[in-house]
């Protein structure tokens, strides 16, 4: 079993090297788009190959499905839910009457989409070649509003009822004591405030 794992690792390493070599043979161009200042640009052909293999281990990287295309476009912020939506991409993808598209047909799909949505084709291609590898989103930033909401919801001083009993004054959880009613066998009634003060008077 370990030999199989070692072979699989070697194969993946070789594939990564191959992609790096392919990238090295065409520096500064992503299917005709110059990239003088941006080192993170992946040639369009290589990006197409990576996303067409994403989620499909049997794919040879020559054809892409609609779901893979949508994943790519969402990661590249081409699909923003306003100007371009997944409905738009589905309509234009289905026009080509194929479940999977090769790179040439995919270019036609992008041209058709760009024309109908009045977006520059080069702008779409630039986004697609600078969004990084599948699953690695480089443009995502943590929303300030989301952070404020999380802070508000996790502020233990605002908790009420039984939830309030689970934390001490510093906000640290009490553990089992905060979740279970422990039996008090001291003889005092519940809520008595002057416990152990009788002999002090």
Please give a structural write-up.
The protein is mainly alpha-helical and 201 residues long. It is 45% helix and 5% strand. Strand 1 (29-30) and strand 2 (33-34) form a beta hairpin. Helix 4 (86-94) packs across helix 5.
| Strand order in the sheet with the most strands | 1-2
Percent of sequence in beta strands: under 5%
Order of helices and strands: HEEHEHHEHHHH
Gap between N and C termini = 78 Å
Largest sheet: 2 strands, antiparallel
Structural class: mainly alpha
- What would the average pLDDT be, to the nearest integer? 75
What is the share of helical residues?
A: 40-55%
Q: What best-fitting shape do the alpha-carbon axes yield?
A: elongated
Number of strands: 4
> Count the helices. How many?
8
Poorly predicted residue ranges: 19-38
Provide the gyration radius in Å: 29 Å
List the defining traits of the structure above:
single chain; 201 residues; mainly alpha; two-stranded antiparallel ribbon; two-stranded antiparallel sheet; 8 helices; 4 strands; 45% helix
Topology:
Layout: H1 2-25, E1 29-30, E2 33-34, H2 44-53, E3 63-65, H3 66-75, H4 86-94, E4 100-102, H5 103-116, H6 121-129, H7 144-153, H8 161-164
Helix pairs in contact: 4-5
Summarize the structure.
Helix content is 45%, strand content 5%.
């Amino acid at each position: 079993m370990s030999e199989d794992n070692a072979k699989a690792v070697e194969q993946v390493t070789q594939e990564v090297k191959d992609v790096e070599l392919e990238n090295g043979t065409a520096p500064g161009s992503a299917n005709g788009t110059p990239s003088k200042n941006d080192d993170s640009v992946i040639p369009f052909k290589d990006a197409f190959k990576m996303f067409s293999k994403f989620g499909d281990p049997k794919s040879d990287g020559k054809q892409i499905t609609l779901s893979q295309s949508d994943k790519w476009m969402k990661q590249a912020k081409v699909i923003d839910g306003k100007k371009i939506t997944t409905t738009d991409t589905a309509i234009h993808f289905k026009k080509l009457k194929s479940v999977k598209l090769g790179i040439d047909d995919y270019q036609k799909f992008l041209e058709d989409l760009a024309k109908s949505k009045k977006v520059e084709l080069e702008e779409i291609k630039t986004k697609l070649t600078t969004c990084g590898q599948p699953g690695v989103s480089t443009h995502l930033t943590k929303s300030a509003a989301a952070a404020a909401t999380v802070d508000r919801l996790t502020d233990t001083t605002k908790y009420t009822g039984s939830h309030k009993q689970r934390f001490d004054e510093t906000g640290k959880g009490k553990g089992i004591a905060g979740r279970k009613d422990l039996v008090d066998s001291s003889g005092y009634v519940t809520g008595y405030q002057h416990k152990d003060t009788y002999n002090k008077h």
